[in-house]
Amino acid sequence: MSAWMYFDESGLASGYTDASGSFPSPYDAPRAVRIERDPHSGRTQIVFLYVLPDEPVVPAAEARGVCLYVGKDTARLYRLEMNVPSLRPQDCLSRVRDAAAAIDELSHMEKLTRRWENYKLARNVLDVKGSALSDALASSERR
Amino acid sequence: MRRHPLRTFAYYSASVLRAVAVVTIAVVGILLKADAGDFVPLDKWVQAIQHQAWWIVLASAGVSFGGGQVRKALGPPWVWASVESVLERFHTVAFPGEALSHEYRVTLFKHKRFVWWVWPWRSRVWPWGLGRAPWSGWLVPVARSGHTTRSTNVLFLAPDDALNAEGVAGQTWALWKRILVKDLPDLSADASDANVKDYASRARVPEWWLRYRIRKRKVCPCCLCGIPVEVNRGKWGVIILDGKAPAPIPEEGHFYKAYLDLIPFFLDQILRKV
Description:
Chain A has helices spanning 9-14, 89-106, 116-142, and strands at residues 5-6, 22-24, 32-37, 43-49, 57-63, 66-71, 77-85. Chain A is α+β, with helices and mostly antiparallel strands. Chain A has one domain (5-142). In chain A, strands 1-3-4-7-6-5 form a six-stranded antiparallel beta sheet. The longest helix of chain A has 27 residues, at 116-142. By secondary structure, chain B is of the alpha+beta class. Chain B has eight helices and six strands, in the order H-H-H-E-E-E-H-E-H-H-E-E-H-H. Chain B has helices at residues 5-32, 43-74, 77-94, 167-175, 193-203, 207-215, 254-262, 264-270, and strands at 104-112, 138-144, 156-157, 177-181, 223-231, 234-243. In chain B, helix 1 (5-32) runs antiparallel to helix 2 and helix 3 (77-94) runs antiparallel to helix 7 (254-262). Chain B is elongated.
């Protein structure tokens, strides 16, 4: 399991300021992200941390071999699980890109559209932190 | 505002009445099974209580229920005191160098489906405004930084038809986003028609309401920032920062980090109790 990678939420959020001077809700902006391997299934997961973290998650949809786990009540994106047992660190970056594309595809689903802004932010996190996540997985595998 | 001496008095009075009612029910229950002869010289009192027990228990149950409802409606005073102390701490971050005053404020609004009364009236014949009702959905101020402008009666319409939400508070509720409106005209210096129209359209408030505030010499802030508040993973209300100077609200950087560190988790935990 890698350590949480915190980032400047305000910078992340300000990327989506619209013309009316509005910003995403602070509850929708991830505060940190990390990558880990599930000890039972051996699948790799990307986990997002929010300001209010304690919410049960449910699997919402699957695309490109990536399963999206969203909050039971809020439908915020909490976890991305890559359905590839024993993902090699060198393949990680391409899988992170798949995960980002999966978010794009699935955020248009009817049951998920109400949180599209949260998904855009999560997508942005993967774009910005993709290679850092890949490196983090590689270094945690070496340990 | 929820932190008010009268409300505190009412809360603790309701608590005491409730406790007395519960003890009364217990005592009457015990005395019903007792032999009055064992209580000489109070045997006549015991007999009287045994004869009147049905309505004493009924009345006590009513008082206990009523006291509980009053306590629930008011919320514990210590919760509101804690919320206001955090708002004041946040005020020092949001408006560095500005004293706690009526010109720079942090206000917490709660969304309520029903309000009994609005002031000023929104139409001549119907307080809530034509086409609106007490159950239209309103944002009510519950806590504020500072010790002034606490007897506010400002309410913002936050209805289901979100296009008609009023003010930055209503827009924040409707869009569930952070909203920043800067550089509004200073109406205390120049309340010309053009300025009032400009202010009303940018802050999304009715012109008559603005003119009422100007007439009453109430604050019309030049900068407004609305932030949603979630409690228990549900939409609870909004925080509004308002400032007198043209652009004192830093929307980014350490202000936002301080907000994240101070407000969401604390409010989520403490407002579950009210």
